[in-house]
Structures are given as structure tokens and as C-alpha cells.
């Protein structure tokens, strides 16, 4: 083979190699473009699917909420119907059987809490602004509470129970009942008003300084108004059952008039129905107004506390008088001591300990 033939053959080999390389490059480019196209398309499809799923989930939640409310209304209607047909004992039996069947395995409370969130009506059961203002008015009569000889008749309808320089207590019969409304006036010079206010609100710390507390917790809160629903169980001496309270609590600090107000009012809550374990107290209210001598954070303040409850027990009048004359001073002394310790030793709140000054011992929560 001459030189020209060798050259032509070598050129053909190079052309085939170049064509093969161009083909591989074209194939790679096509695969890459295909991947990019379908990747973008898949991402777009995924976003559309996610948005559709979000809309579907919202519609499903709205529908479930509608169905739940409808079934709750139907349940209430059925309950009202059967309450007309059957006696109370039969209804209680049916409800208990329902509870054992559907609300066992420790799931009772979350289910009740779910219902409670949709049933409890703050607009109907909350403490109003006018009630807060009426409690504030009590502090306008402090002068007459301090000195009964003052030219006023504010307490003429009240019976005096305790008359001490720093503590006074009265009671007044509630018409058409066997109950009394109690009013307490007190003053302290060794602790700020804010500490006394805080210790009245601190549920966790109260479990340590009040040895009659069995249960005490906030079960619901309205963030808009700052009001709370409290569940409180109080120990009663044997053989009486302990008493149970469910109440709404509202607090307010009036900077302009320099007063602090706390109002508690009995209510009911679907998460905490009555049981056989405790006696539920339905008639209960407590109102306290605190006014500092100077500022909220300096030592010295006056307070007026008004309260009433129906413990649902028949006790002789002499027993009630004894409870008022001894129980009230004991309670306010503990309240004052707790406020003082919380102010002087704020770390006690973190450790959960309360020091009993009289017995020189640390007091744990009630067991």
C-alpha cells in the first residue's frame, strides 16, 4: 500500500472517532436536558400537590369541626329528652357506662379538654369590667372600716366578728339562704402590695404554704382578657368529703388609682364534671382589693377581702363562728408569711419550699 492509501485509511479512522465523540456528547446533552426538564416539572407538580393538600386539609378540618359541634348539640338534645323520661340515677348509669366504654385507657382528660375548648363560653361566664369596678369601690370605704366611729353607715348591716388593730372581720346574712357573706380588712407595714398580690395568684407556691390544698391548677385561660379557669380541691377533716371548686379568676392592676384587684367566681367546666370523689361547691366568690400606702413595691398596704361559699354541710352556728374567729386569722397570717418570704427570699418559688416560722420547719405540698 502506497503512502496515499495509508493516509486515506487513517483519515477515515479519525472521522469515525470524531463522529462517535460527537454522538456521545449529543447523547449526554440530551440526557442532561431531559433531567433538567423533568426535574423542573416534578418540582412544579410537587408544589401544586402540596398546595392542594393544604387546602383539602383545611376544608376537612372545618368539616370535622362542624360535624363535632353538630353531634355535641345532638347529644345535649338527647340528654334533655332522656332527663324528662328517666330519673337521675338512670341517666348517671348511662353516662358512666359510656365513659367506661369510650373514654378508658387514660384518654378521658384529653377528650374532655377537646370538648371543653369548643363549649366553654368566655363571653357568658367571664368576670365583667363592672364587677371589677364594684370591687374597687370597697377600698374607697377603708377609712370607715378602720374607724367605726366615722360618720358613715357603710357597715351598719354587718355583724362584727373580729376587731383588732390590724385585722377586722364582719359577716352579713345572705337573704333567703342560711349562708353568710364575710368581709375582712387588714393592713401590713412589712411587705409590699405587689408581693401580697403575687402570692394570691401563684398557684404552685400555694401548694406549699397551704397544707389544705389537694389539687390546684389552671385548666383554661382566655389570653384576650387574661382570665383563667381554676380547679381547686380543699381537704376537709374526716369523715367529711373534701370540697371541690371550679372558678373563673380575673385580676387587674389600676395604676392610676393605685389598686390591685383579684376576683374569683364559681363556674362549671366540661373538662371537670362532678364526681363522687369530692363535694362540688357551686356557690362561691372571693374578691380582694389591695391598696399600697405609697407605691406597689414599697412596704405597706391595706386590703379588703370579701367572700362567700356554700360548703354543703350542716354545721351548728357556733362552729361557723369558731371557724370565722380562728380560721380567718390563721389563713391571713399564712398568706402574709408566704408573701413576706416570697418577697425576701424569691428563690423559694424555684425550690418549692415554704418555711413555717412558728414551727421552724419546711412545709411540703399537701399529700
Automatic annotation (TrEMBL):
<protein>
    <recommendedName>
        <fullName>Phosphatidylcholine transfer protein</fullName>
    </recommendedName>
</protein>
<keyword id="KW-0813">Transport</keyword>
<keyword id="KW-0597">Phosphoprotein</keyword>
<dbReference type="InterPro" id="IPR023393">
    <property type="entry name" value="START-like_dom_sf"/>
</dbReference>
<dbReference type="GO" id="GO:0005829">
    <property type="term" value="C:cytosol"/>
</dbReference>
<comment type="subunit">
    <text>Interacts with ACOT13/THEM2.</text>
</comment>
<dbReference type="InterPro" id="IPR002913">
    <property type="entry name" value="START_lipid-bd_dom"/>
</dbReference>
<keyword id="KW-0007">Acetylation</keyword>
<keyword id="KW-0963">Cytoplasm</keyword>
<dbReference type="GO" id="GO:0006869">
    <property type="term" value="P:lipid transport"/>
</dbReference>
<dbReference type="Pfam" id="PF01852">
    <property type="entry name" value="START"/>
</dbReference>
<keyword id="KW-0445">Lipid transport</keyword>
<feature type="domain" description="START">
    <location>
        <begin position="158"/>
        <end position="344"/>
    </location>
</feature>
<keyword id="KW-0446">Lipid-binding</keyword>
<dbReference type="GO" id="GO:0008289">
    <property type="term" value="F:lipid binding"/>
</dbReference>
<dbReference type="InterPro" id="IPR051213">
    <property type="entry name" value="START_lipid_transfer"/>
</dbReference>
Amino acid at each position: 500500500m502506497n503512502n496515499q492509501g495509508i493516509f486515506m485509511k487513517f483519515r477515515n479512522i479519525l472521522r469515525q472517532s470524531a463522529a462517535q465523540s460527537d454522538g456521545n456528547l449529543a447523547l449526554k446533552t440530551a440526557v442532561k436536558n431531559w433531567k433538567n426538564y423533568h426535574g423542573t416539572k416534578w418540582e412544579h407538580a410537587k408544589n401544586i400537590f402540596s398546595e392542594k393538600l393544604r387546602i383539602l386539609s383545611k376544608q376537612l378540618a372545618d368539616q370535622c369541626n362542624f360535624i363535632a359541634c353538630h353531634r355535641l348539640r345532638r347529644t345535649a338534645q338527647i340528654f334533655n329528652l332522656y332527663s324528662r323520661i328517666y330519673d337521675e340515677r338512670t341517666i348517671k348509669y348511662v353516662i358512666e357506662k359510656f365513659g367506661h366504654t369510650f373514654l378508658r385507657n387514660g384518654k378521658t382528660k384529653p377528650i374532655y379538654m377537646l370538648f371543653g375548648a369548643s363549649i366553654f363560653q368566655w363571653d357568658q361566664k367571664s368576670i365583667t369590667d363592672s364587677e371589677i369596678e364594684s370591687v374597687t369601690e370597697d377600698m374607697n370605704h377603708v377609712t370607715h372600716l378602720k374607724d367605726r366611729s366615722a360618720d358613715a353607715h357603710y357597715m351598719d348591716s354587718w355583724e362584727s366578728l373580729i376587731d383588732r388593730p390590724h385585722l377586722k372581720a364582719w359577716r352579713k346574712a345572705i337573704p333567703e339562704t342560711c349562708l353568710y357573706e364575710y368581709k375582712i380588712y387588714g393592713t401590713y407595714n412589712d411587705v409590699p402590695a405587689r408581693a401580697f398580690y403575687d402570692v394570691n395568684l401563684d398557684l404552685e407556691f400555694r401548694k406549699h404554704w397551704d397544707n389544705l390544698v389537694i389539687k390546684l391548677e389552671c385548666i383554661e385561660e382566655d389570653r384576650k382578657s387574661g382570665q383563667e379557669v381554676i380547679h381547686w380541691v380543699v381537704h376537709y377533716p374526716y369523715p367529711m368529703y373534701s370540697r371541690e371548686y371550679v372558678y373563673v379568676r380575673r385580676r387587674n392592676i389600676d395604676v392610676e388609682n393605685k389598686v390591685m384587684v383579684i376576683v374569683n367566681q364559681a363556674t362549671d367546666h366540661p373538662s371537670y364534671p362532678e364526681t363522687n370523689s369530692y363535694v362540688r361547691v357551686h356557690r362561691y366568690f372571693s374578691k380582694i382589693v389591695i391598696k399600697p400606702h405609697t407605691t406597689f413595691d414599697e412596704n405597706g398596704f391595706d386590703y379588703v377581702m370579701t367572700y362567700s361559699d356554700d360548703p354543703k354541710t350542716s354545721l351548728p352556728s357556733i362552729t361557723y363562728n369558731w371557724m370565722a374567729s380562728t380560721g380567718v386569722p390563721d389563713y391571713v397570717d399564712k398568706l402574709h408569711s408566704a408573701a413576706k418570704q416570697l418577697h425576701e427570699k424569691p428563690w423559694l418559688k424555684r425550690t418549692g419550699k415554704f418555711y413555717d416560722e412558728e414551727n421552724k420547719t419546711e412545709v411540703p405540698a399537701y399529700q
